[in-house]
Amino acid sequence: MRVFIACLGTETNTFSSLPTGEQTYRDTALFDGDATRHEPTPFSQPLHIWRARAEEQGHEVTEGLCAFAQPGGRTIRRVYEDYRDRILAQAEAALPLDLVLVNMHGAMVAEGYDDCEGDLLTRLRAVVGPDTVIGGELDLHCHITPAMLEAATVLVTYKEYPHVDIGERADDLFRLCHDAALGRSAPVMAAHDCRMISMWRTTAEPMRGFVADMKAREGSDGILAVSFGHGFPWGDVAAVGAKTLVVADGDEEKAAALAADLADRLWAMREETRPTAIGIDEAIDRALASDGGPVVLADVSDNAGGGAPSDSTFILERLIARGVRDAASGLYWDPVAVRFCMEAGEGARLRLRIGGKCGPDSGDPVDLAVTVERIVENAAQTFGSARNGIGDAVWVRGEGGLDLVLNTLRTQVFHPDAFTAVGLDPAARKIVVVKSTQHFHAGFAPIAKDILYVAAPGAIAPDFAAIPYTKLATPYWPRVEDPWAG
Ligand SMILES: [Zn+2]
Fold first, then answer.
1. Could you tell me the distance, in angstroms and rounded to a whole number, from the CA of residue 141 to the centre of ligand 1?
2. Lower Cβ count inside 10 Å, N or C end of the chain?
3. What's the gap in Å between 199 CA and the centre of ligand 1?
4. Distance 242 CA to ligand 1 centre (A)
5. How far is the CA of 305 from the centre of ligand 1 (A)?
6. Across residues 463-470, what is the average pLDDT?
7. Rounded Cα distance, 103 and 51, in Å
8. Ligand 1 centroid to 347 CA: how many Å?
């Protein structure tokens, strides 16, 4: 069997003014056919798994481009077209192909292309022909579009948020697509639009049970795979929103019926699963009142993983104004401040302008007298079983002990080792503020006394009813109470 693997993705916040160009892909993950010869990153991990599984079976593997960008605004048109065309040319050169596996995000938008995944899959289908199995792995924060469903044989999304199951889903996709390529199954897909825009944390009930039920349905009664595409709220595209997606063996009606049934269950749970978030001062009050620590405050509105700048100062300003000292916070993406610290060196004391640099969503810069405690070049943090580079990182301490981690590669906080990488122990602090929506949860829950989600201002403030869509044609909850009425 001849197998082709590739990766192209990012999660595009179409409301963001941060341009996503070649440098952002280079900073995150850019390999031209040799991603699997390097240490796995969260974005290349599926390629490692697919190559290993295919080679175990004695198949011939051709590896194409692997390009992934930290979320931001739209990808520059010529960059998207260049990456796409490289993958298409690599697939064409590897013909004939039995199996094509692509790791994508599912919410990638480029200038001129609202549905990059649909565009890529459609062109891949044209290259490989109608009989080749094409499988795609997607982040659950995806827009599942008609073009994607039409062109792919099998699509699966992650089931877990935080995304701790990237490898498991890569294994699932390989098995399903390999069976199909051997003629052991005939996958058909059906998606169901939930008409809901929200975020679902799978770390707590009732979503834990929902995930367990999705898994339980797979592998029996002709159901091959069950996914819930939560959707990515900050994409102004026609297909934005939550969708269930079922792959069945030859029976599209059965797939559609289960997809509708699962969507009904999600609708019934909508109030219970609505993400809670509290104001900045309430969060600080509750953290200070807690006996022991650390209480983790998630700055969900400034999560780089949703295309936010990761340099907002709204919570930092309140910590300073209220005299809170026993606190640590990161990661502030501030290459200029990091440069000043590196010039000054460890132990230096200086007055540093921190954050607030990218635009109105970042708030105002904060001027703080700090000591440079520690500088680490090319630091990294853990994300699942992969490593995520955070760039050059600096631990600075404000007067009285307010500790901040500044870095040069824009990324959210995935794990406490984003702090310990520079020698700062978050477990020993009363308050830890992390710029992340949910991925932090896997690593921080074991050390946290409590976790509070904070609705600070910012690029992705969790107010789903107020997102100014211009292309979504159908009503949705929570902007309207009943999107099915009328
Ligand atoms: Zn995601």
1. 5
2. C
3. 10
4. 13
5. 8
6. 96
7. 13
8. 38
Beta strands in 250-337 (DSSP E): 295-299, 327-333
List of residues 6+ apart from 135 with CB closer than 8 A: 99, 100, 101, 102, 152, 153, 154, 155, 156, 173, 174, 176, 177
> Nearest 5°: CA angle at 168, between 297 and 195?
65
Look-up of token digits 């502030």:
332
DSSP string over 348-380: -EEEEEES--SSGGG---EEEEEEEEEEEEEEE
Per cent of the chain over pLDDT 90 is 95
Give residue 442 CA to ligand 1 midpoint distance, Å. 14
What whole-number distance in Å separates Cα of residue 117 and Cα of residue 27? 21
36-82 pLDDT, tens digit per residue, is 999 998 899 999 999 999 999 999 999 999 999 999 999 999 999 99
Domains and CATH numbers, the chain: 2-272 (3.40.50.2300), 280-461 (no CATH)
- Residue 42 pLDDT: 85
Q: How far is ligand 1, taken at its centre, from the CA of residue 353, in Å?
A: 31
Tell me if 135 sits within 8 A of 99, measured CB to CB. Answer: yes
Q: What is the pLDDT of residue 292?
A: 87
3-state secondary structure of 331: strand
241 neighbors 476 (Cβ within 8 angstroms):
yes
Global pTM value:
0.93
Cα 320 to ligand 1 centroid, rounded to whole Å: 32
Residue 150: partners with Cβ closer than 8 Å, 6 or more residues away? 118, 122
